[in-house]
Automatic annotation (TrEMBL):
Organism the protein comes from: Roseibium polysiphoniae
Protein name: Ornithine cyclodeaminase family protein
Family named by the database record: Belongs to the ornithine cyclodeaminase/mu-crystallin family.
Transmembrane segments: none
Matching PANTHER family: KETIMINE REDUCTASE MU-CRYSTALLIN
NCBIfam families associated with the record: PRK06141.1
Domain of life per record: Bacteria
Pfam families on file: OCD_Mu_crystall (PF02423)
Length: 318
């Protein structure tokens, strides 16, 4: 059985190849039971969450990811997400690979955002604003660079020092103009793409800030009690999701407007299955404001795990 470290997982999942792998899996589909979602009390800290996410392609590959989401880790300087992924042969049951789940999660999450941007962001989108300074933030830059001509990135975080440090890291890694800011409103008003990757319980991205043609990408706020956008953003935008079943139940950016009547189920234009299969064309014109909400899907992990396994196995065989 292959054991892929964090560094090996990163190298095995280049963003363009990963975006294409997700696109192909959303086109073909797989078996994906509802994830197990359990709150775990942590004394003196916000509740943690354990997720169990299985998926399989009959007769080909099967996998399951175990994820621990620990909000209190931010105060310890540790990643909020810890995870491992077990990939198996779906015909024989043989265990094929154990893949670093934290790196897989961060990269496939960013790749799903980039896949949505491929369909929903303007083709000339060049200014990316990222709200959040966690692990996924840096990956969002690399993923969007794979699908759009990004030349400028602005990071916002509750800590300006963290935003500026992340900006310096991103600039060195990607060789583009990157800055940190304490003024989220100003950044959003000037953005072509806004990605939010936080655990916020209150809206950060306000609809009144959005300019015509903006694409909003909501990655964090994975519980019904969390939210990164307000009702006005939902009203002004064409709304898309990664999966209807997941987002209408789990992500507060969709479930809260549905509960209040601001959004109806029929107002959700499409999910990634619809977009990948050509059932919806995506962005209509350069003036449309689009909003994409993701809560993650086991399909995405499986697609990434298969890509990582095949990449490493192929390299070992050559």
């Amino acid at each position: 059985m292959l054991l892929l470290s964090q560094e090996e997982t990163l190298k095995a999942l280049p963003f363009l190849a990963l975006v294409d792998a997700l696109d192909a899996m959303f086109k073909s589909g797989c078996e994906m039971p509802v994830r197990h979602h359990h709150d775990m009390a942590v004394p003196g800290e916000p509740d943690a969450t354990m997720l169990l996410m299985p998926a399989w392609v009959p007769g080909a590959f099967a996998g399951v990811k175990i994820v621990n989401v620990m909000p209190g880790n931010s105060g310890r300087g540790l990643p909020a997400i810890s995870a491992e992924y077990l990939l198996s042969d779906a015909r024989t049951g043989e265990m094929l690979a154990m893949i670093n789940g934290g790196e897989l999660t961060a990269r496939r999450t960013a790749a799903a955002s980039a896949l949505a941007a491929r369909y929903l962001a303007r083709k000339d989108a060049s200014h990316l604003v990222v709200a959040g300074t966690g692990r996924v933030a840096l990956n969002l830059v690399g993923a969007h660079l794979a699908v759009r001509p990004i030349t400028r990135v602005t990071f916002w975080g509750r800590s300006l020092d963290k935003a500026q440090a992340l900006a310096a890291e991103a600039s060195a890694l990607y060789g583009i103009t990157v800055e940190g800011t304490s003024d989220l409103e100003q950044a959003v008003r000037a953005a072509d793409i806004v990605s939010a990757a936080t655990l916020s319980k209150d809206p950060l991205i306000l609809g009144e800030w959005l300019q015509p043609g903006t694409h909003v990408d909501l990655v964090g706020a994975f519980k019904p009690s969390m939210r990164e956008s307000d009702d006005e953003a939902v009203r002004r935008a064409s709304v898309f999701v990664d999966t209807r079943e997941g987002c209408t139940k789990e992500g507060g950016d969709i479930s809260q407007p549905l509960a209040s009547g601001v959004l109806r189920p029929s107002d959700i234009k499409a999910d990634l299955h619809d977009l990948a299969q050509g059932l919806h064309k995506g962005r209509v014109d350069d003036e449309e404001i689009t909003l994409f909400k993701s809560v993650g899907a086991a399909l995405e992990d499986l697609a990434g795990a298969i890509l990582a396994y095949r990449t490493v196995a192929s390299a070992a065989a050559s």
